[in-house]
UniProtKB/TrEMBL annotation:
It catalyses: O-acetyl-L-serine + hydrogen sulfide = L-cysteine + acetate. Keywords: Amino-acid biosynthesis, Cysteine biosynthesis, Pyridoxal phosphate, Transferase. Residues 9-285 form the Tryptophan synthase beta chain-like PALP domain. This is Cysteine synthase. The keyword Nucleotide-binding does not apply. It comes from Pseudomonas typographi. The lineage of its organism: Bacteria, Pseudomonadati, Pseudomonadota, Gammaproteobacteria, Pseudomonadales.
Length: 300
């Protein structure tokens, strides 16, 4: 008998879907969380990171040994650093210098090189620098914001998994929006199965800072984003997202980041207005990525 042993790449996807036990209170709704922190590098971004590299290789655009450059606020960078290590690429990541120490350390642990831009330059400045470096021949940009292989990973993976795990009963899908790859690909798949499924996207309220998600200026809106794939956009306050993030850890044993807490906060709002709904929210990463931020220091 020949045994087949998987590689680390084979462990991306097929993440658990679990139900909330306490935060929803007495309700006729089913509140479900897709635990993307269970991916090998700890976030939903593992899916598009490997997809973008594999599909670019298949098209002959890159080959092992090449230098890849990408702008990231954190999770995509960690996932790309892992994928580059798996596949044999040099990885240069450009990120704002206010990203958490855990994120920076995880990227370098996988062998990536970091270039930091100022908090004021932000992700827009990081994206501009990545494009300049490519124009100067210093690396090839995968460009998660404009690369169709990003949402395709969710169309082929996340969406079918949720449909299968809910037995086709899902009525609402809730996701924070950063590059928008998760919500775009998952929405496309779910709407093909049932056009009545409601897709809810989350963005920070004006003045709120929620790691990993943005209110993009029009000129920087990700090219993969198609507004018609989102039925409703929820503006989320930072304080509400942080509160629910802490409650998830303390009352449900689900340890995640603030954008995930925001998605669950939006789910809890919907829970007050709906009956007999089956809602799925994306928990996109793990909370250990945010310990140095002080997020979990507040008293219960």
């Amino acid at each position: 008998m020949t045994l087949h042993y998987p590689t680390i790449a084979d462990c991306i996807g097929n993440t658990p879907l679990v139900r909330l036990q306490r935060l929803g209170g007495q309700t006729s709704n089913t509140l479900l969380l897709k635990l993307e922190g269970n991916n090998p590098a700890g976030s939903v971004k593992d899916r598009p990171a490997l997809s973008m590299i594999n599909r670019a290789e298949a098209r002959g655009q890159i080959s092992p040994g090449d230098t890849l450059v990408e702008a990231t606020s954190g999770n995509t960078g960690i996932a790309l650093a892992m994928a580059a290590a798996i596949k044999g690429y040099r990885m240069i990541l450009i990120m704002p210098d206010n990203s958490t120490a855990e994120r920076k350390a995880a990227m370098t642990a996988y062998g990536a090189e970091l270039i930091l831009v100022s908090k004021e330059e932000g992700m827009e400045g990081a994206r501009d620098l990545a494009q300049r470096m490519q124009a100067e021949g210093r690396g090839k940009v995968l460009d998660q914001f404009a690369n169709g292989d990003n949402p395709e990973a969710h169309y082929r993976g996340t969406g079918p998994e949720i449909w299968r795990q809910t037995g086709g009963a899902i009525t609402h899908f809730i996701s924070s929006m950063g590059t928008t790859g998760t919500i775009m690909g998952t929405s496309r798949y779910l709407k093909e199965q049932n056009p009545g499924i409601q897709i809810i996207g989350l963005q920070p309220m004006e003045g709120s800072a929620i790691p990993g998600i943005r209110r993009w200026p029009v000129e920087y809106l990700p090219k993969i984003y198609h507004a018609e794939r989102v039925d409703r956009i929820v503006d989320m306050a930072q304080a509400e997202a942080e509160d629910v993030t802490r409650r998830l850890a303390r009352e449900e044993g689900i340890f995640c980041g603030v954008s995930s807490g925001g998605a669950v906060a939006a789910m809890l709002r919907l829970n007050q207005a709906l009956e007999n709904a089956v809602m799925v929210a994306i928990v996109c990463d793990r909370g250990d990525r945010y310990l140095s931020s002080g997020l979990f220091d507040a008293a219960p």
